């Protein structure tokens, strides 16, 4: 069991170190990793409501609103009235936002390549398989928890 926690701790350590390095390199190009998530989402899916962004990225609506305020202030996104709901706004990425996102993407990819160059092709394949198994297991656990919660709600009714 001790080895399980040691490996887990190493994975978290790796994640945090890579996250920090990637964030620093992207920020030098004009957009942080966190902000790039919003821009990437908008560039792939197109204009949408902030509630759609919050749901897709699993963020609180207030967090999304604050992030969009900052992105809009920097002219990376724009808001327009939603033609179907006058209370809502449609958020879209601007050309400036696309340019900033593209500029930040290159150093991110370069850094990831450099980090993973420590592994040969066989090791990369093994790591991919191992991480995929762990992702699948976490999905199974999440599904089981959601089913248990749904069952508890059904019993309470």
Automatic annotation (TrEMBL):
Chain ranges of the HTH marR-type domain: 8-136
Name of the protein? MarR family transcriptional regulator
Query: Where in this chain does the entry annotate a coiled-coil region?
Result: none
Q: Name one GO molecular function term.
A: DNA-binding transcription factor activity
Q: Which InterPro entries match?
A: HTH_MarR-typ (IPR000835), MarR/SlyA-like (IPR039422), WH-like_DNA-bd_sf (IPR036388), WH_DNA-bd_sf (IPR036390)
PROSITE patterns given in the database record: HTH_MARR_2
GO BP, sorted A to Z: response to stress
| Pfam families referenced in this protein's UniProt entry, alphabetically | MarR (PF01047)
Q: Its domain of life?
A: Bacteria
């Amino acid at each position: 069991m001790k080895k399980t926690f040691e490996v887990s701790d190493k994975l978290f350590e790796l994640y945090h170190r890579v996250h920090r390095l990637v964030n620093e390199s992207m920020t030098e190009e004009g957009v942080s990793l966190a902000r790039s998530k919003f821009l990437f989402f908008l560039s792939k899916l197109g204009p949408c409501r902030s509630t759609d962004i919050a749901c897709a990225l699993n963020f609180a609506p207030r967090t999304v609103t604050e992030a969009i305020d900052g992105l809009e202030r920097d002219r990376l996104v724009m808001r327009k009235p939603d033609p179907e709901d006058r209370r809502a706004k449609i958020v879209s990425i601007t050309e400036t936002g696309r340019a900033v996102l593209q500029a930040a993407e290159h150093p991110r990819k370069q850094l990831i390549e450099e980090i993973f160059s420590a592994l040969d092709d066989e090791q990369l394949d093994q790591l991919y398989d191992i991480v995929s198994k762990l992702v699948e297991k976490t999905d199974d656990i999440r599904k089981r928890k959601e089913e248990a919660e749904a069952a508890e709600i059904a019993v309470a009714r």
